């Protein structure tokens, strides 16, 4: 009886809580189907063990608890005890996870699945699932048992999970949401959508990453709800003491990821979903785009101006107008009579050409791509077998079903012509998928879904990911194992294995500059570190100041590209007059100086699974105020920035994490762990270097690889105590790094009051061209008497600006300065 009361209480609560906008079915009045009720797990009565899986049951429904590693435990619910196929597009294939140890203990009240760091408790009485650390502190717990509701229209279930929420709990992650960093107090949905000119808090947007990080009392954990249907997350919005997530179909299937550090949670999330491969070096240079540069003379003129004005640039983009009637994989020969020649000339001048490819294929019997797709039945079909047709740029279109490996293989080969023409990178757009007028495909469209089959309701959120996956695979083969460069607008969790991303059609306003800083920080902790905004704003007109401030932020965006809509005025770095041009040039040059640092940060992402952009909350989660800071963030471990987000701003308050920090432009020393008021003249933005860091710098180049580096500059920032830095170098283009053809240098800097020691060790098989380092010391609090390298005393040298440096063999092991 008590159990029944409890269930009724749950049911009535739920009716309040979830009756409004999150119940999406209607009972079919024609068939007169009885009202569907929510069903809850009952009492957990028994279990079975199968390897690292435990299956608990209440007699009817089952819950599987699978131990992936000591920190990662997956929970699945099967309302009728038959689990769905264990397949996920998000989880990487070669998963290399094993728990070190785990045991199941049974007490009178509960089953306990224990690893070395976390205990998953399954309460017998009510089937509540919770996670505790080894001190018995509950980190995350069900508020009510997992529940479900039959979907009478489509079959399957709406599935729900509701967690208790602590008063101080903060939430991060969830991909490209345009809200404040801390998601608490808001409800979100995930349904990839073409959202031209989106606004602050508008939801959903282009991407789906159903992964969040909770932080409470200094402890962080992650929840990855791996479900591709439309999903919802309510972070203590409906009710202050609970957080719910649910879906319109599929399985309640989530991974609990143990921290307690937020950084660890993100790393473990990357263990499941993978990281971005090392991008080609040119892909992290500055990129110039607009809708569209055409005809050819226009493209050439833009390129010429960059070189004439000596503003570095590595890539120029061709938007849809390069195509013949927007037919993918064709050229408009009137605008581009000899694309191969144009691309070769651009390449000779150091420019890579990136082109747009959309999923909509024009219905045209004289167009080879359409004919091949049609003959091979590669296009998506409706529930009753009609073709899925919709209007996009080319007019009436059909759409490949990228969830079929054969279709992906075919699509990958279509790039052959473009690659032969010399195209270096591909930009996949409109792949939410977007359809004019109706938004996207209707729900009944069928997909192959890797042989597991599903309607568009299930495949919608992974459509774009599978498109760019096929682009990536195709390019990798066609470019003979060179690292592909791809960028996509739509994404699902795990897309980082195939592509970079951008945040879509933003607006040229100060508010959007701010939204961009939030989105990129959030994407980064959601696994999509290689991300950028349309610098300057896609639609609308920025003035010189906004454009320039956005360019400054762009230097610290992992992906740095200016892009704008077809109806906007010019957007090249010189378009706003000489004053702004000079500042933009200075900052683009800064990007090129910092390239070896930026590249090393990409390596830390790829290999060590660390996000590139790091919100303050990720750096110092133990301070409650930090969970609300969102204007300053770190790029990698050593550089912290705070973009200027308001017109006319003369100064701003910046919080610096604990430790010592140096102003990048003036080398002034700041104590961390507190806020500082810093000046923000137009030609500067607040950039700080962590004390003890070794920051490598390249000389300014007009494009990556323009100059050979004879000696690598290292800026070493004095600090008392120890600090570690890494520099990663390889030849910048192939996958040879997978066979250890790279050089990873580890530096340990240890400062004392009257001296500093730098030790170096290296790993990898790559031998870079330069032989020496030019070492500059910054902030030494003592007069230099002696510098000794591996037992030999060396002299000071002077550079062309009369600054002292030390020329040191790159193989050095130990350097002491006193
Ligand atoms: C979409 C893209 C935008 C592109 C335009 C034309 O709006 O988001 O970047 O320029 O389509 O292809």
UniProtKB/TrEMBL annotation:
Glycosyl hydrolase family 31 C-terminal domain: residues covered: 610-695
Protein keywords: Glycosidase, Hydrolase
InterPro entries per UniProt: DUF5110, Gal_mutarotase_sf_dom, GH, Glyco_hydro_31_AS, Glyco_hydro_31_C, Glyco_hydro_31_N_dom, Glyco_hydro_31_TIM, Glyco_hydro_b
Protein name: Glycoside hydrolase family 31 protein
Species per Swiss-Prot/TrEMBL record: Sphingobacterium bambusae
Annotated Glycoside hydrolase family 31 N-terminal domain residues: 63-234
UniProt domain Glycoside hydrolase family 31 TIM barrel: residue ranges: 277-600
A GO molecular-function descriptor: hydrolase activity
């Amino acid at each position: 009886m008590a159990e029944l009361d409890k269930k009724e209480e749950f049911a009535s609560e739920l009716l309040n809580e979830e009756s409004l906008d999150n119940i999406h079915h209607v009972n079919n009045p024609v068939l007169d189907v009885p009202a569907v009720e929510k069903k809850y797990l009952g009492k957990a009565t028994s279990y079975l063990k199968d390897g690292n899986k435990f299956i608990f049951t209440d007699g009817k429904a089952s819950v599987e608890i699978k131990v992936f590693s000591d920190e990662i435990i997956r929970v699945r619910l099967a309302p009728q005890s038959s689990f769905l196929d264990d397949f996920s597009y998000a989880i990487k294939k070669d998963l290399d996870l094993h728990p070190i140890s785990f045991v199941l203990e049974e007490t009178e009240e509960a089953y306990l699945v224990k690893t070395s760091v976390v205990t998953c408790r399954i309460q017998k009485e009510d089937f509540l699932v919770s996670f505790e650390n080894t001190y018995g502190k509950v980190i995350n717990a069900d508020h009510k048992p997992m529940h479900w509701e039959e979907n009478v229209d489509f079959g399957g279930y709406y599935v729900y999970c509701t967690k208790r929420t602590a008063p101080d709990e903060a939430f991060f992650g969830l991909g490209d949401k345009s809200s404040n960093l801390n998601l608490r107090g808001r409800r979100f949905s995930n349904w990839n959508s073409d959202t031209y000119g989106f606004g602050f808090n508008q939801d959903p947007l282009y991407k789906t990453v159903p992964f969040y990080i909770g932080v409470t009392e200094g402890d962080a954990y992650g929840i990855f709800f791996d479900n591709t249907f439309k999903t919802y997350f309510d972070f203590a919005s409906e009710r202050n003491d609970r957080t719910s997530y649910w879906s319109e179909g599929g399985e309640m299937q989530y991974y609990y990821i143990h921290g307690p550090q937020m950084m660890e949670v993100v790393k473990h999330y990357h263990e499941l979903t993978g990281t971005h491969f090392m991008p080609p070096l040119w892909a992290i240079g500055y990129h110039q785009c607009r809708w569209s540069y055409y005809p050819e003379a226009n493209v050439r003129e833009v390129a010429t101006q960059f070189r004439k004005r000596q503003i570095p640039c590595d890539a120029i983009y061709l938007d849809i107008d390069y195509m013949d009637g927007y037919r993918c994989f064709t050229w408009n020969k009137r605008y581009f009579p000899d694309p191969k020649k144009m691309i070769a000339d651009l390449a000779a001048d150091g420019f890579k050409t990136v082109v747009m490819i959309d999923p909509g294929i024009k219905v045209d019997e004289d167009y080879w791509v359409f004919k091949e797709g049609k003959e091979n039945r590669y296009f998506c079909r409706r529930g009753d077998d009609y073709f899925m047709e919709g209007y996009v740029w080319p007019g009436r279109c059909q759409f490949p079903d990228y969830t079929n490996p054969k279709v992906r293989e075919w699509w990958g080969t279509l790039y052959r012509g473009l690659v032969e023409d010399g195209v270096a990178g591909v930009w996949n757009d409109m792949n939410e998928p977007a359809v004019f007028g109706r938004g996207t495909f209707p729900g009944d469209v069928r997909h192959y879904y890797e042989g597991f089959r599903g309607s568009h309701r299930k495949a919608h959120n992974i459509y774009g990911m599978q498109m760019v996956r096929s682009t990536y695979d195709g390019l990798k083969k066609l470019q003979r194992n060179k690292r592909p460069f791809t960028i996509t607008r739509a994404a699902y969790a795990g897309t980082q294995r195939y592509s970079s991303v951008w945040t879509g059609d933003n607006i040229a306003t100060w508010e959007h500059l701010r939204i961009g800083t939030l989105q990129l920080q959030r994407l980064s902790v959601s696994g999509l570190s290689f991300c950028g905004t349309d610098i300057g704003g896609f639609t609308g007109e920025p003035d010189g100041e906004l454009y320039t401030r956005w360019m400054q932020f762009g230097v610290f965006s992992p992906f740095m590209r200016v892009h704008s809509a077809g109806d906007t005025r010019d957007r090249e770095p010189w378009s706003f007059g000489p004053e702004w041009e000079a500042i933009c040039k200075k900052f683009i040059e800064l990007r090129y100086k910092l390239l070896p640092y930026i590249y090393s940060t990409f390596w830390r992402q790829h290999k060590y699974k660390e996000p590139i952009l790091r919100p303050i909350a990720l750096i110092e989660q133990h301070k409650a105020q930090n969970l609300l800071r969102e204007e300053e963030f770190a790029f990698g471990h050593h550089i912290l920035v705070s973009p200027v987000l308001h017109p006319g701003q003369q100064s701003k308050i910046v919080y610096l994490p604990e430790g010592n920090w140096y102003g990048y432009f003036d080398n002034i020393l700041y104590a961390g762990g507190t806020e500082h008021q810093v000046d923000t003249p137009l030609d500067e933005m607040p950039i700080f270097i962590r004390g003890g860091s070794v920051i490598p710098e390249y000389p300014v180049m007009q494009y990556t690889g323009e100059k050979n580096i004879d000696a690598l500059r290292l800026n070493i920032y004095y600090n008392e105590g120890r600090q570690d830095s890494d520099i990663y170098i390889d030849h910048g283009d192939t996958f040879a790094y997978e066979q250890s053809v790279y050089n990873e240098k580890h530096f340990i800097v240890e400062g004392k009051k009257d001296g500093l020691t730098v030790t170096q060790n290296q790993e990898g098989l790559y031998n870079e061209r330069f032989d020496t380092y030019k070492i500059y010391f910054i902030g030494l609090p003592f007069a230099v008497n002696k510098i000794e390298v591996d037992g030999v005393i060396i002299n000071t040298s002077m550079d062309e600006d009369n600054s002292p440096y030390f020329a040191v063999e790159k193989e050095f092991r130990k350097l002491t300065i006193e």
